Structures are given as C-alpha cells and as structure tokens.
Amino acid sequence: MTVTVAPSILSANFAKLGEEVRMIEEAGAEILHIDVMDRHFVPNITIGPAVVESLRKVSSLEFDVHLMIENPERYVEAFAKAGADNITVHIEATKHIHRLVQKIKSLDVNVGVALNPATPLEFLTYILQELDMVLLMTVNPGFGGQKFIQTVLPKVVALSGILSEINPRCKIEVDGGINIDTARLASRAGAEILVAGAAVFAASDPCKALCDILLAAREEHN
Ligand code: DX5
Ligand code: ZN
C-alpha cells in the first residue's frame, strides 16, 4: 500500500491554471484533484467539463474529478468525455447510487463515492464491493482552506478495516484541511490518497509544500 497526495486546483490561480498544473506535475504529483461545485449541493460554484477538457491537453496527470453537484447522473458522461480518470459522486446528492455507480463504470473510468463528515459508513454497505475509491470528507464540502474535522479519523480506521476484508483494491481518499500534521493523522488512520488544496497552492513554494506533505504522510504509512 502506498500513500499519495493529490493537489486540488481549487486553491490554484485560475488565471494561469495550465501553468500551475504543469508545475505541480513536474514536482512529482501523480493525481490532480478537480473540484466541481454547482451552488446547489454546496454553496459555491467552480468549473465544468470545458476546463477539464482544456487541462487534459496540457497534463498527463490522473484526473480525479470530485463532483459536488446535485443529480450528478446528468454530467458524468460529459466529465468522462472531457478526460476524467476517476469520477467521484456524493451519496447525498443522488437518489439512485447503485444505478449511478453502474453508469460511471460503463464509461470506463474509476468510480468513487464520497461521504460528508456526518454521513455514516453504513450507507455504503451494499455498494462497497463495486467501488474503486471512497472519499471521506474531512471538511464540509464547498470551500478550500477549512479546518480538518478530527472526528472523521475513526471513520477512516473503520473503513480501512472493512475494505481489507471485502474490497482491498478500493482506495480511501480524504479531502479537506490536509497539511503536514493532518496528513500524518490521516495516513496513520489508513487513508491512501490525501487531497491538499490550500496547503499546496497557497504556499509560497507549492512544490516544496507538496513534497513536505508527502514525506510526512509516507513516514506514517505502514
Ligand atoms: C472542498 C473540496 C476540497 C478542497 C480542499 O469542498 O472538496 O477538495 O479543495 O481544500 P483544502 O485542502 O484547502 O481544505
Ligand atoms: Zn474535493
């Protein structure tokens, strides 16, 4: 098992997005986290498939698209076509998670399901075997730069135990408030993909920040 850090473009400079993505790719990032918000599921608006399509032309990073939108079934096809490698949908945002997971799988991309901090793991019981990734939110979704919610850590530990029994290839991603200190905690708890927005892109040296978080996370990983 390895642990990696996925920089989130939410805190990047949108006026020079291509350059920032290339910079982070040269620094050794493997996954790029792309936050999509619709002002309905969360109180913020970000980007759509056109931006993903443009970034696809300048980057070969794994594109990890996190859909924080209502009725995500309407858009998964467009994001797959735009160049997403992983598509993650919130269980709270759809009435038909099983159908939606099958639809995403049929698009030949990896499928993830995200849970808000207060959503219980039990909601995943009958879908867990189908998934490539579970995203556990460690902030309430909508904005970068928020404080890590520590009470999600036992949820990471519990999920890690469940997955080792029933779907060991499924990865745990955590998203929100990741910095050097919380990266250690999340990694120790069993998370394998750590999303970091502000701690990377708002740092004076984003490449060094990325490496420092990655080193901290790897020190804790067993
Ligand atoms: C929040 C987003 C996150 C966000 C994380 O709703 O899903 O991906 O970019 O940002 P930080 O690392 O600044 O908390
Ligand atoms: Zn995210």
Element layout with pairings:
Elements: E1 4-7, H1 17-26, E2 31-37, H2 49-56, E3 62-68, H3 76-82, E4 86-90, H4 97-106, E5 110-115, E6 133-137, H5 153-166, E7 171-175, H6 180-189, E8 193-196, H7 198-201, H8 206-220
Helix pairs in contact: 2-3, 6-8
Summarize this structure briefly.
This protein has 222 residues and is an alpha/beta fold. It contains eight helices and eight strands.
Characterization of the model:
The protein has 222 residues and is an alpha/beta fold. The protein has one domain (4-219): Aldolase class I (TIM Barrel), CATH 3.20.20.70. The chain is built from 8 helices and 8 strands. α2 runs parallel beside α3. The model has no long low-confidence stretch (mean pLDDT 97). The structure holds D-xylitol-5-phosphate and zinc ion.
Measured between the Cα atoms of the first and last residue, the distance is 8 Å
Summarize the helix and strand pattern as letters.
EHEHEHEHEEHEHEHH
Rg, rounded, reads: 16 Å
In the CATH hierarchy, what is the class? Alpha Beta
Low-confidence stretches: none
Label the structural class: alpha/beta
Question: What proportion strand?
Answer: 15-25%
What features would you highlight for this structure?
single chain; 222 residues; TIM Barrel; eight-stranded parallel β-sheet; 8 helices; 35% helix; binds D-xylitol-5-phosphate; binds zinc ion
